[in-house]
Design a protein that fits this description.
Layout (H helix, E strand, L loop, with lengths): L28 H19 L20 H14 L8 H13 L10 H23 L5 H11 L5 H7 L4 H9 L3 H13 L4 H7 L4
Length: 207
């Protein structure tokens, strides 16, 4: 439940806030595994290192390294459930999914580090936009904190240390909740190495 939110990375935006704040929001094991492994592939593609999925194996059912097309298929199917929440990222994911349609073993994520970075940044952008506009004032705030804490395996170490100083996270979030630009700068730019969101659409093909 913790990791997927945020990236992205992406699947928290597919779920609405429950009427009962005490109830958990169910996020499937395969989504948690796919999002985590997507981040692992993205980091490896950008750095030229070998994919490290050790952090992902703690999720139920995430017992092996997924093929890149398996990851893309899971993300694509999830996005199709609520495409209006992924206006920016769905084209990038669809392009990767198209490669997999003709070749299930295609390196749909790692083959083009630049395209992968765009996909990652758009997923982060769409998710942060949803978080910023919809859930910062409700009980899911703790879920966001837990998700970012879990995502620290892939984020800048100094950034994570600063985020989780006593009371720092709550103060930062409350200060940034009216500013998507500030939230994006903190998480996407400093955490994932994305360009400024005002330049993102110009630098990534198809946008």
């Amino acid at each position: 439940m913790l990791f997927v939110f945020f990236l992205l990375i992406a699947s928290v935006a597919c779920h609405v806030v429950p009427a009962d704040p005490q109830k958990s929001i169910a996020i499937s094991d395969d989504i948690q595994c796919a999002v985590c492994q997507f981040l692992a592939v993205s980091v490896a593609a950008k750095s030229g290192s070998h994919r490290n999925i050790a952090h992902c194996l703690r999720f139920n059912g995430c017992e092996k390294e997924l093929e890149e097309c398996e990851i893309v298929s899971i993300l694509h199917d999830e996005i199709q459930k609520t495409p209006e929440k992924f206006v920016s990222s769905r084209e990038a994911v669809a392009a990767a999914h198209s490669k997999c349609t003709s070749n299930s073993m295609a390196l749909a994520i790692s083959e083009d580090a630049s395209a992968t970075q765009c996909m990652l940044c758009f997923l982060v952008y769409d998710t942060l936009k949803y978080i910023n506009y919809n859930i910062l004032e409700n009980p899911m705030l703790l879920t966001v904190q837990n998700a970012i804490e879990a995502a620290c395996a892939f984020l800048n170490e100094q950034l994570c240390q600063a985020l989780f100083e006593p009371h720092a996270f709550e103060a930062i979030i409350r200060g940034l909740q009216d500013s998507l630009g500030g939230f994006y700068d903190l998480i996407a730019m400093q955490g994932f190495g994305c360009v400024d969101y005002t330049k993102l659409f110009g630098e990534c093909p198809g946008h």
